Amino acid sequence: MHALGIIGILLLLPLNVFAAEPYRIVGRSAWGADETFLYVNGETTSAVANTANDKTSEPDTIPQRQKECEEAHRLYPEEFSVSRTIRKKGDRSYRWPLQYGNDVRLLVLHHTAILNEGDDRSSEEKMRSLYEMHANGKGWGDIGYHYVIGPDGRIFEGKAGGDYVIGGHVYCGNIGTVGIALMGNFDLELPRQAQMRSLQWLLHRLQMRYDIDPKDTVRFHGRDLPPVVGHRDLLSTDCPGYYIAEAMDQIRSNVSRGDVDASVTFPNPKKGESTGLFTARQKSKKTSPSSSSSGVQAVGATTITGQPGGTAVFLVSYASGNRAVSRRSRIATVTRSTPRIGLIQEMGGGSIPVREDLLLPEDLAQRSTQSIRLQITLPTDPGTHTLTIGDVRYTLLVKGRRAHTAEPQGQSSMQQPTHASEAQHIRIRLSLREGDASRCTDIDLRKLKTQYRGALKCIELEGKPAIINTLHLEDYLAGLAEEPDTEPYEKQRAFAIAARTYAAYYMSEKNRKFPGMPYDGDDSPARFQLYKGIAFELKNTLWTKAVRDTAGKVLEFQHILIKPPYFSSDDGRTRSPEEIGWKNFPHAAIFQSKSDPWCKGLPMAGHGVGMSGCGAKGQAKEGKTAEQILMYYYPSTKIERLQSGLSP
Q1: Most-buried pick from 77, 228, 398, 615 (CB within 10 A)?
Q2: C-alpha angle with apex 416: 374 to 559, nearest 5 degrees?
């Protein structure tokens, strides 16, 4: 056969046809991918966009990378085209629809930033953990990388979908790129030569597969780039770590020559940096703003006691001082007495592993505070250990038998609300009744009686100090203290949907409950809803689960949010708005008087309009679902997904 014909056939073959030892690609089934993660199972459908999907700032503080992405869309629209989208497989819907690009131009290198040293898990275990973190921890439904290379050199198939499927690894640059991650933290440790050889082999084969000339340059979003780049070449990040970044020219050269077995020589550690693992880096970097009132502070006790391998949740607070601090800023160095101390922090709508720095979950205005929820996994070695976060030192007393619930480091069981994909960045602003000082300067936001998620700021309002809590709507709902765990779970789910709808209704500009005020609601049940922050959430885990289970769900009538009243009890029937003097109540026909036999014999407690607590409880005990309960009290409505456009 003609040589050109042979090459043509080879280019049509899947990559693993080439995978003779010592190089091979381990397929998803071989490393144990749980394919059920891919599909919707009643939970929120994930929306891992290929463009600016991280709208976590207020409209006047749009992140720079989002602005740059929107500009790239405007200037290079052809580079964002998608050839096809697959939303279902049979009768199952994908959480992350499979999208396919028209070509592949760049191969992008990453590191997982999780140390290999001191982690005795197998590469397959690490791969499954990484997959679970992306698919469920981040809510994507799959891993974002196309390939992952373990420290032993094994290459794992990542994102499902095959050739040209679009991943989720470089924010605005996912279309037209393939993401390859190497397990390890290459700011702190050297890559293994086995990883480098496998990487070079994979890059060589991908260049053949996608007809990429390794000696040419690629025009990408208006820039001329080599076909193999690091994550940091496309976005402001340390990834793929110092040692890989400094060796990129060697890697490109070896791949260009086809010398995939060549070793890679790495640079010496950076001047002034410790070569030991698990010690704080000495390089200069931005941490907390210089101010006597800024920095991280413990919330509660600094001694944590538990079983070997057990977990615990605790809080720290961060004060911004005299200047604003942006999301994901490094606010404290984290050091451990042993690498087997796992740590996870909340970050916006999800959670991430903490390596050597604690990051700020949300943008924070000057002279404001933010509570940060952390989950620690205690080491499996009994004894006394330490964890230091900034200037706060925690003593870990590990004793007793090993916990049966011990999880591999990097996995999270934080009971944190999962935000619906469309509404995950909607924030609500609340006025809190805490603080009795006459001036904001006399209020220490880190010493309030109650701890709150999100950001706190004191402002002067009508000559008096007002504490404003800005947080995700789903986090707010988790702290609502109206349906404790003593109530049936389906009743809790019904009230979670109704309470979310009520809050969202008043967040709309045309329905403001407090017009002209810099907040949407307050923590008073007489005026808005009873909100008690993190303390209630931690004590009522079933309520938190009900919020997560219904994330983003609201009640609508003909695609318009309703204003859903609810109350405690009636005497056997609900009341109509007209009966109690509510004139021109929106969608009044929905709330006409209904028989409420589950409440018969009880006194009237509340206005009597809409859903009763006693009726919802009675129906839940009879086996009715939250959806059935809601349709009884709010007929003609539909349960829909809250849209992010409602954000104030």
Answers
A1: 615
A2: 150
pLDDT at 462: 79
Q: How far is CA 520 from CA 58, 335, 527, in A?
A: 15, 40, 11
Closest CA to 167 of 48, 29, 36, 75: 48
Q: What is the largest CA-CA distance in the chain?
A: 92
Task: Name the one residue in this structure whose structure tokens are 């996870």.
Answer: 344
Query: How far is 240 from 220, CA to CA, in rounded Å?
Result: 19
* HSE value, Cβ hemisphere, 13 Å, CA-based, for 208: 18
- Burial level of 36, CB count in 10 A (0-12/13-18/19+)? exposed
Angle at 170 between CA 181 and CA 114, to 5 degrees: 35
Residues 6+ apart with CB under 8 A from 343: 334, 336, 353, 354, 374, 375, 376, 377, 387
Q: Which structure tokens are listed for 259?
A: 């010398």
Is it the case that residue 58 has pLDDT exceeding 60? Answer: no
User: Which amino acid does the sequence have at 9?
Assistant: I
- Cα gap 47→56, rounded to integer Å: 15
The alpha carbon of 297 is separated from its chain's Cα centroid by a whole number of angstroms, namely: 24
- Which domains are delineated in the chain? 3-257 (3.40.80.10), 295-398 (2.60.40), 472-646 (no CATH)
d(CA 393, CA 303) in angstroms, rounded, equals 9
Per-residue pLDDT tens for 110-163?
Answer: 999 888 887 778 899 899 989 988 888 778 899 999 999 999 999 999 999 999
* Distance (Å, whole) CA 332 – CA 388: 9
| Distance in angstroms (rounded) separating the CA atoms of residues 261 and 196 | 8
pTM of the predicted protein model:
0.50
Burial 346-375 (b: 16+ CB within 10 A, else e): bbbbbbbbbebbbbbbbbbbebbbbbbbbb
Cβ-proximal residues to 368 (8 Å cutoff; 6+ apart), any chain:
319, 320, 445, 455, 456, 457
**What is the rounded CA–CA span in Å between residue 466 and residue 605?**
31
Cα-Cα-Cα-Cα torsion 161, 163, 168, 171, nearest 10 degrees, comes to -150
Q: How many whole angstroms from its chain centre is CA 84?
A: 27
